[in-house]
Design goal:
- By secondary structure, the chain is mainly alpha-helical.
- The chain has three domains: 2-43; 62-157, Type II secretion system (T2SS), domain F (Receptor-associated Protein), CATH 1.20.81; 162-402, Receptor-associated Protein (Up-down Bundle), CATH 1.20.81.30.
- Helices cover 74% and strands 5% of the residues.
- Strands 2-1-3 form a three-stranded antiparallel sheet, covered by helices on one side.
- Strand 1 (2-8) and strand 2 form a beta hairpin.
């Protein structure tokens, strides 16, 4: 939540600005830590209208920018640059105005005596719980340089694998969208004119031609209702997915799709293992590592599994035994975790598993890309062939009668 404040600094000069916090008390604390005496502080209410509309999409920070930022921070820490100077240098070179604003606020917080993790935690939309906890661990152990190196490497790996999986779906999505657009134009603009010629000829039309003409008439007469129905349906579905029940149903459905569900499962397991490996290697306890991983895993099914495993571990049960109860967790993972717990090398074991699942995701994506093109060619060819045959066959039959 955003708050605006008016305050007086140590020189009795008036200061005003904004601060992000979860509550007004947290906002007051954040401003006071900057050495200011507060005169007034109020929450910001977004007044949106036709001429003053804030669009969050254009004010966001991409994963790529966070990867680059983390790598720069890690490099500057290696050069033994002070934290305050690091964020000042980065803010001076930042092009994204939203990220620039956040870096400036972090600089203000650091000047006010705040720790780096606390300053980052004030911006949860940019710096995740995982990110903040790893930085906090580095502060507590005196190894911030190591923490930011771990973060930079982890974010690099995550960005690479997610980008590859996403880019693999762009081409088929584009081709399918173009196909349906062309088919829609054919059925609403071309087929109705040809259908009039065919029906006026008085000849008996094949069943597939009648189906195509019926579909064309339906689209022509009800295209507006179809558009409204689809728009309302998409909005309702999107709203439902945003609810906890809807998110759970959506995640279950995605995991049940043949092949795509397997790919999604491997992506989630890659993130799960990589998160745990990175946190454990940085000195975070197993309880805290599981708790943070549960918050950032971004899949309701696996979040529930990790939450249950967390409760079991707190009660004294081993992590491997808890995971073994769930069919969504592969047997090889539970066996490797058990070996890691018994030998005291769980972080290395989770790192090995992360590499294994990352390789599995790469192979699955490469296979998917290899299969998509021939399958789409066959399906598009069938669609176009049926449409042309339904039109050309009656025309050929009509011309052969003359």
């Amino acid at each position: 939540m955003l708050f605006t404040y008016v305050a007086i600094d140590n020189t009795n000069a008036e200061r005003d600005g904004t601060v992000e916090a979860s509550s007004i008390d947290a906002a007051i604390t954040a401003v006071q830590k900057r050495g200011y005496t507060i005169m007034s502080i109020d929450p910001v209410t977004d007044k949106k209208n036709l001429f003053n509309l804030k669009i969050g999409f254009f004010e966001g920070v991409s994963n790529k920018e966070i990867v680059i930022l983390s790598r720069q921070i890690a490099t500057l820490f290696q050069a033994h640059v002070s934290p305050l100077r690091i964020f000042r240098l980065l803010s001076a070179e930042m092009e994204n105005p939203h990220l620039l604003n956040i870096l400036n606020k972090i600089v203000e917080d650091l000047q006010g005596g705040s720790s780096i993790s606390r300053a980052l935690a004030a911006h949860p939309t940019v710096f995740s719980v995982f990110y903040v906890n790893l930085v906090r661990s580095g502060e507590e152990s005196g190894s911030l340089e190591k923490s930011f190196n771990y973060l930079a490497d982890y974010l690099d790996r995550s960005y690479e694998i997610i980008s590859k999986a996403r880019n693999a779906l762009i081409y088929p999505a584009f081709v399918i969208a173009v196909f349906f657009s062309v088919m829609g134009l054919m059925l609403t603009m071309v087929i109705p004119k040809i259908a009039k010629i065919l029906t006026d000829s008085g000849q008996e039309l094949p069943i597939y031609t009648k189906i195509v003409i019926g579909l064309s008439n339906f689209l022509v007469h009800y295209i507006g209702f179809i558009f409204i129905f689809l728009s309302v349906g998409i909005i309702m579905l999107w709203s439902f997915i945003k609810t906890p029940v809807g998110k759970r149903a959506y995640d279950e459905f995605m995991l049940s799709i043949p092949y795509m569900g397997t790919l999604r499962r491997k992506l989630v397991l890659t993130k799960l293992c990589d998160n745990l490996s990175t946190m454990l290697s940085n000195g975070v306890s197993i309880v805290q590592a599981i708790e943070v991983t549960s918050d950032v895993v971004d899949d309701s099914v696996y979040k529930e599994i990790l939450d249950a495993a967390l409760a079991d571990v707190k009660a004294g049960r081993s992590f491997a035994d808890s995971l073994s109860e769930y069919p969504e967790i592969p047997g090889i993972l539970t066996q490797m975790v058990k070996v890691g717990e018994e030998t005291g090398s769980l972080s290395e074991i989770m790192g090995t598993l992360a590499v294994f699942y990352r390789r599995e995701v790469n192979n699955a994506v490469d296979t998917l890309i290899g299969l998509i093109e021939p399958v789409m060619i066959v399906l598009l060819g069938l669609g176009v062939g049926v449409l042309l045959a339904s039109v050309l066959m009656p025309i050929y039959s009509m011309t052969s009668n003359f």
